[in-house]
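Give me structure tokens for this 621-residue protein.
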Amino acid sequence: MSNPTTKFMARPGVQIVLAVMLFLSLTVLIDRYMRGTQLDLTEEGLYTLSPGTEKMLGNLDEPVTLKFYFSRSLAAAYPQLLSYGKRVEDLLRSFVSANPDKVRLSVIDPEPFSEAEDDAVAAGLKGVPLGDGSTLYLGLKATNTTDGEGDIAFFAQDREKFLEYDIVKLIAGLDHTGRKKLALLTTLPMQYGEGGPQAAMQGQSQPYVIYQQLKESYDVQMLQPDFKALPKDTDVLMVVQPPQLSDDQLYQIDQYVLKGGRALVFLDPHSEAANPRATTPNASSLGPLLKAWGVDMPEGKVVGDASLAQRVQMGGYSSDQVKDYVFWLSVIKDFLAQDDVVTGAVSNLNMATSGVLEPIKGATTKFQPLVRTSTASMLYDAKRAVGMPDPDMLLRGMKPSGKSYVLSARVSGPAKTAFPARVAKEGMPQKDPAVASGNINLVVTADTDLFDDRFWVQLQNLLGQRIVVPIAGNGSFILGLVDNMTGSDALIGLRGRGISKRPFEVVERIRQDAETKYLAQEQTLQKRLNETEDRLKNLESQKPGDTSVLSPDQEQEMASFRTQLLETRKQLRAVKHSLRREIEHLGSVLAVINIALVPFLIVIFALVRVQLRRRRRRHQA
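Here you go.
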């Protein structure tokens, strides 16, 4: 026989109450003591570290201290910012969980006029000033035991999809000693500008802007056309419109890439930067290397795009003829890979007489497009781009293929050597064994004109100083690629992870329906209001110039108009209030359903299943 307590506890209502209390208690305990332990059920795994990040954290040589400055108390008035700050904190705790012995985290709330706020300022963090004079901080300071330090001054929400990348880059950069080495092989006059060495001898050289920016950040070593070997300890090899290379030189590049060297390759079926006055296409290639990497660039073909065509001025600056030139492309954000850490931060690119890239069928490498054309594009013979083609004739003869062509792509994964016979013949030398295969990591782009200043910057001279005004994101794209490739494997492998903010899509549709419903009524009332105000102004203007007295009829008409004006304003406010109230009510209902009702129904469902099982057992007994 069961006692009264057992009968009481067996009641479904009591069990539901106890289950809800247990659920809430567990939620509080888990949030307090198990924040680093997560069950990530988000669509894109927002709170799950990538394998590359976990590997990087597991291989840390020195302990890393992370100080997360988050003005939680001030952010409470800004729900979206508070939610984002919590996401950053949760992700940082995941970093700690991946290697608690080497990663330490301190979460600090820098209250106004406190020592913690002084520490945040000293750490180089940037706060957001609020209306009451206080400053909100949302930044990170990282240090290690070998005097390495770095910071993220403020976690901007527009970088949310690259949050993990930014933190990994910060930690990986703590061990950075000296500048990274960039080996550059090119026939473009990057060091001197269009005038070449002759202009430099006369003191009139103007190096490419992108070359100067690379020199500021990296140890750039120029490779001569007849180079015998690549420089030792090269971090990144950049090949831009290379000269005709010998088999020995191609073999050097082949082996460098197969042994894990990072490379950025820029080729072109017709480089206008190499020689703007050329009478034949200025093409470049890497012989058999591209195909060995699983990539094909159709020879002698340039792409034209009617949708992305740049507007160019024909006949010089004095002419007013501006036309679409399909060979010069202004690639906007819609055609740049938004999940890539480099192109995701670029708004537009200017490219000229570009070729296209295609993955070879059956290739073992992974081909990830970074830059594409629109579908209003087609391939032309490169000879059509030489000289001064007629833009109108090119447009009239265009027959769009309906295909979006790839202009730049990441290529990674297992690949085989382009020189198998030579590798087999050389055998295994003691010092530097030849390899027949390996995992490669590079970016290939079918255009070199994006380096040329005239396509992406405006240069101005102010008191002898050269002022650079970017008009496209070419510099950000190239520098971003170099920065990305000089990082760890974790950095190169990371992609955008989506965003945590999930708007109520149903509420948004209801809002649009409600606005449509009330729009006509609101417009009618607004029109009546404007007409009433105009009539009042007209009556006011009928007063004699030396008196403010109106006739009785005018006074009565004005009083009527004023009453009508007040009534119309009242109705207009009621319409707007009804719209706002309907939207807020529906939003609140859906929020309750998503946040409270669904978990409650899950608990009830579980209890009902338990009760049904008990009844079955009783019947079976």
